[in-house]
Amino acid sequence: MTPTPQTIEQEYAAKRPKSRALYERATGLMPSGAAHDGRVFSPFPFYVDRADGARKWDVDGHEYLDCWSGHGALVLGHNHPAVVRAITEQVKRGTHYSACSELEIRWAELIRECVPGAERVRFTMTGTETTALAIRVARAATGRTKIIKFQGHFHGIHDAVVAAVRDPFEIPVSAGVPPEVLRATVVARPNRIDEVAKLLDEHEVAAVILEPAAGRSMVVPTNPTFLRELRELTSRRNVILIFDEVVTGFRLAAGGAQEYFGVTADLTCLAKAVAGGLPGAALVGRADLLDSISFKGDAKRDRTQRVADQGTYSGTPLVAAAGVAALEILKTGEVQKHINRLGDRIRDGLNAVLATRQVHGCVYGHASVFRMFLGATKQELGLDTWQLDEARLERGMGAVGPKLHLAMLNNGVDYNRGTANGWLNGAMTDADIDRIVDAFDRSLTRLKEDGALERIA
Ligand SMILES: Cc1ncc(COP(=O)(O)O)c(C=O)c1O
C-alpha cells in the first residue's frame, strides 16, 4: 500500500507518475528539461495533454483551471471556436506564401482600429523581437543611443533589456551580454518622475520603455499619475516613449493600457493576444517613426539610413488568420468587460478568504490580472497610497510562493508561478472564479497544515 503523502510536494509528486517519467526523459535532452525557464520547477513540472476553454488537463488526468492562459496570450481562452475555425480553414490554403496576403492587411486594420496611436503596423513574431525593433527605431529616429528602462520591468531577453529585471538588480538577468551594451541601458526606479528627469539631463536618451500597468505584469504597479507625467516629460524632451503592451494589449481594454489609462505612447509593442494565441507580434505607433522601416526609393537613404527589419514568419497567413479572428471579437471590448469584472470578483474573493482564514496577505491587480501575496497586507505594501514597498513587492512571498503554487495545482488551478500572477480569460465564468477561490481556501488550509504559513510574518 502506498503511504499517504505527507507534504504538499509529496502529494504533488505521488499523483503525477506520468509527468515525472516525461520529465526524466526530457532531462539531459533540453536545458533544465524544458523549453521555457518559467515552466520548470521542483520537484518536476506537469505535462499537459490538452486544453479547452478555461481548462487544461495533464497526462495523469488532472484538470486545471488555467489562470496562466497561454502566458497571458489567450485572452479568449483555449481553442476559441472562431480562432480554431480560422486556423483550420487557413491551414488548408497554406501557412506561408513567401508573399503578401490580404489577411495581413485586415489584421493591421483591426489593430489600428483598436490601439490608440497605431498609425502604422509592422508585424513581427515575438515580444522580444518587437521591443528590440522599437528600440532600434527610436535610436534611428533620434540619433541617440541610450535607453531608459525601469527596475523590475521585463521586455524579453535581448541584450538591451536584460538589465535590472530581477533582484539583485545590478546583475543582468542573463550572462553573455557585453558590458558596453549594458552601459547603453540606463535604469530608473519605477514611479519616480524626478529621477527620470534627472537621468534625461545626464544622458543622451533615445527612448524610455516600460510596461505601462506594472513591472513583470503585476509585481510593482505603475501609478497612473506617473504614466501621465512620463508622457509629458518625454514629449517635452523629444524622447520616444515606448509602451511594452505585450501582456496588456487587447487585455486591459480593446485599446490595451493606452485606452485603460488614457495615455498614448509613441511606439507600442504588441504580442501574445494580438495573434490570438499563435506566435505573432507587432510594433505599432507614430507613422513618422515606423516609416523609418519603409523603402523611400532613394537608394542612398534606403541603404544607409533605413531601419532594417525582416522575419521569416512575420505576418504569415496562418498567424494572421488567428489574429484577425481574435481581434474581430476583442475589438468590441465586451470580453474585456467580462474578464475585468471577473478580475474584481477574484481579487475580492481571494482577499475575503485571507480575511476569513486570518492569513497575513493580500491579492491585488488591475483588470483581469491579479497577483497573490502572502506575508503583507495591501496597506503594508503601500498599494492603497502609492507609497509602494518595492523591495517587498519584488521579493514576493519567498519560499512559501512555490508551496502555494503546488498546493493550488493539487487543487486544480495553475497560474504564473514566478510572479504569482494570474491572467483570466474569456472562457471563464463566475462559477470558475468560485472554484478558484475555493481552491485558494483549501490550499491555505493545506499550507497551514504543512506549517508553511508560520514562516510568513
Ligand atoms: C511585458 C513583456 N514584454 C516582452 C515579453 C517577451 O515576449 P516574448 O516571450 O514573446 O518574446 C514578455 C513575455 O512574457 C512580456 O511579458
Helical residue percent?
Answer: 25-40%
Domains, number = 2
Radius of gyration: 22 Å
Provide the residue-averaged pLDDT: 97
The counted number of beta strands is: 16
Structural class: alpha/beta
Morphology: globular
**CATH-derived architecture of the largest domain:** 3-Layer(aba) Sandwich
How many helices does DSSP assign?
A: 16
Spans of 5+ residues with little confidence (pLDDT < 50)? none
Strand order in space, largest sheet: 4-12-11-10-7-5-6
Termini, distance in Å? 39 Å
Strand content: 5-15%
Describe this protein's structure.
- With 457 residues, the chain is α/β, with parallel strands linked by helices.
- The protein folds into two domains: 9-77 and 334-455, Aspartate Aminotransferase, domain 1 (Alpha-Beta Complex); 81-330, Aspartate Aminotransferase, domain 2 (3-Layer(aba) Sandwich).
- Helices cover 39% and strands 15% of the residues.
- It has 16 helices and 16 strands.
- The strands form four sheets. Strands 4-12-11-10-7-5-6 form a seven-stranded mixed beta sheet, sandwiched between helices.
- A hairpin with a 4-residue loop joins strand 2 and strand 3.
- The mean pLDDT is 97.
- It binds pyridoxal-5'-phosphate.
- The site of pyridoxal-5'-phosphate has 13 residues, from helix 5.
